[in-house]
Amino acid sequence: MRAEAILFDKDGTLFDFQKTWAPWTGEVICALADGDPGLRAALAEAWGYDMETGRISSGSIVVAGAVCDLAEAVLPLLPEHDRDSLLAHLLSTSARVEGVEVVALVGFLAGLAESGLQLGLATNDAESVARAQLRRVGVEAAFDFIAGYDSGHGGKPAPGMCLAFVAHTGLPPERILMVGDSPHDIMAGRAAGMQTLAVLSGVAGREDFAALGTPVLPDISHLPAWLRSRGVDP
Fold first, then answer.
1. What are phi and psi of 98, to 5 degrees?
2. Higher pLDDT, 9 or 230
3. Residue 230 has what pLDDT?
4. What is the pTM of this model?
5. Is residue 203 pLDDT above 80, yes or no?
6. N or C: which end of the chain has fewer CB within 10 A?
């Protein structure tokens, strides 16, 4: 069925996940540990981060969780921090992270919009952080709809953000394509009645999507050709 709108995940879909978030994760862990190697190791384990390779594991809370989940995961290790101060620190530092684009997003998104597709973004990041990153690469205005975990619709894999985009577009959900790099994205889209498509520019592998039966592309650069094969000419 021809899609008339696309709802994108952000990290691992529009932005390369490891290149964007692994450096931040390592830097924040080192800053919070403040020279204590035992605490640094404990923080890295809690967040699923390999200090030797500088990579985030596929099962990491950094991949699927919201920033509030990251704070909760390490708060017991940081008695000198309260939840609000730790969350504020994570939000302020993550808002400055430069997203490493999977493709040049300005032209890519303009091509999709010119074909008549409505575009939305649904991320488990905070909406303010998402908007800051999109603004930095010049594509915030390309999206008709932007939602984070704190936008009032809940986080993925629950379908709240997807259903909010359905309501925003006024389209039947089966006319909307959810594109993401995590099984949580696919589950959220499916629960909302959307078409789904997975990409491998995050930390999940093709095998992680096998049980979900969704099409898989290497990354979003292959999306225009895939859409053309289904009657959309971006």
1. -85, 115
2. 9
3. 80
4. 0.89
5. yes
6. N
3-class SS at 2? coil
Tokens of 186: 């696919």
List, in order of start, the domains of the chain with CATH numbers.
5-16+99-228 (3.40.50.1000), 18-94 (no CATH)
DSSP collapsed to 3 states, 139-176: CHHHCCEEECCCCCCCCCCCCHHHHHHHHHHCCCHHHE
Share of the chain above pLDDT 90, in %: 91
Q: Which long-range contacts (CB under 8 A, 24 or more apart) does 135-138 make?
A: 136/98, 136/99, 137/99, 137/101, 137/105, 137/106, 138/105, 138/106
Q: Are the C-beta atoms of 40 and 71 separated by less than 8 Å?
A: no
DSSP state of 4: S
Residues 6+ apart with CB under 8 A from 172: 166, 193
